[in-house]
Amino acid sequence: MAAVTLSKIEKVYPNGFKAVHGVDLEVKDGEFMVFVGPSGCAKSTLLRMVAGLESISGGELRIGNRAVNDLAPKQRGIAMVFQNYALYPHMTVYENLAFGLRLAKTPKAELDQRVRHAATLLEMEHLLERYPKQLSGGQAQRVAVGRAIVKKPEVFLFDEPLSNLDAKLRAAMRVRLTELHRSLREAGQPATTIYVTHDQTEAMTMGERICVLKGGVIQQVDTPTALYERPANAFVAGFIGSPEMNLFQTPREGDTVGLGTLRLPLPAGRFRPSSGPVQFGLRPEHIGLQAGAHSVAVPAQLRFCEHMGAEVYLHAEAQGQAFSARVPAEQGAALMNLARGSTLTLQFQMQHAQLFAADEAGASFLA
């Protein structure tokens, strides 16, 4: 397998629109890297540039030790799985898996071995004689993945492959693809993988590292845990996490921030000194009903509740600021029947506070 290295990669369209702005990134050999971001952030454009389906306007792209800017897709050692499975309807599953190998004039015995090996990895041996119209969405997606596996590429590229599946199938396929990546690594066939999605749940559960993009610019590249706990800026903080982080525009005075007329203490020594307007962030799970050692009581008015099974999401307002809290069902159940505007006291766990610059970039003030 091979690392994928992007150095100062740019994409400028003929009309002058610049979609990708000098991206520098190394995807390590055998790594599972996820590109995530909102619509229009250029994550799919970047993937297509790696694949050779989109030209590169500037910079250098290397796969392994080779510069591949000017190489055709078939010369890059990549295999791509698309959002639409693109299976040949007149061919059986076996024939779909074997098609690319036949074009490459792979010996019959090796072709058969590769196809059956891929079918075993994806637990679809029983599907080999079926046609695409006889497959469910999840089965068709497995065939598309299998077609990539049989090529034994240096790099796997996935462009939102699960977006057409229902929620239950998406969850199952997330597990299957993650297990497949680990199985190949354990078998001595590590697969460098770049996976594009707009779904942060996919990103957080599948990626060994995640590249968060906005407007064709990398905002942060890190592990899921680091992105969640130490976001580099307010955009990453607000994008990663569900429900999203509560962010409040507020003045900072020393080691306190304002929430209307309230002053809330910041954790001592956690943030670099600053003064003036900032963005103060607190994740919904760090706003609750029970007091703790570092919590601050905040009177609030209830807007509405969402019962999510094991949890209840409380949507409330305090000092003219709307925010969300996330509490265990046994604590939140009693609030489900409260009328809109009812007063309650919520505990802000300030030891988990985040602080960002007030401007749009919103750089973190973490020390």
Walkthrough of the structure:
Helix 2 crosses helix 3, helix 2 runs parallel beside helix 4 and helix 3 crosses helix 4. The chain is of the alpha+beta class and 367 residues long. The radius of gyration is 24 Å and the shape is globular. It has two domains: 4-223, 3-Layer(aba) Sandwich (Rossmann fold), CATH 3.40.50.300; 234-262 and 271-357, OB fold (Dihydrolipoamide Acetyltransferase, E2P). The model has no long low-confidence stretch (mean pLDDT 92). The strands form four sheets. Strands 6-7-8-3-9-10 form a six-stranded mixed beta sheet, with helices on both faces. It is built from nine helices and 20 strands. Strand 16 and strand 17 (311-318) form a beta hairpin.
Give the domain tally: 2
CATH names the topology of the largest domain as Rossmann fold
Quick one: overall form? globular
- As a percent range, the share of helical residues equals 10-25%
Cα Rg: 24 Å
Mean pLDDT score: 92
- Name the assembly state: single chain
Name the strands of the widest sheet in spatial order.
Answer: 6-7-8-3-9-10
How many angstroms separate the termini? 38 Å
CATH class membership of the largest domain: Alpha Beta
What is the CATH superfamily of the largest domain?
P-loop containing nucleotide triphosphate hydrolases
Tell me the number of strands. 20
Q: Secondary-structure element order, as H and E?
A: EEEHEEEHHHEHEHEEHHEEEEEEEEHEE
Total helical segments: 9
The poorly predicted ranges are none
The fraction of residues in strands falls at: 25-35%
Structural class: alpha+beta
CATH architectural category of the largest domain: 3-Layer(aba) Sandwich
- Largest beta-sheet characterization: 6 strands, mixed
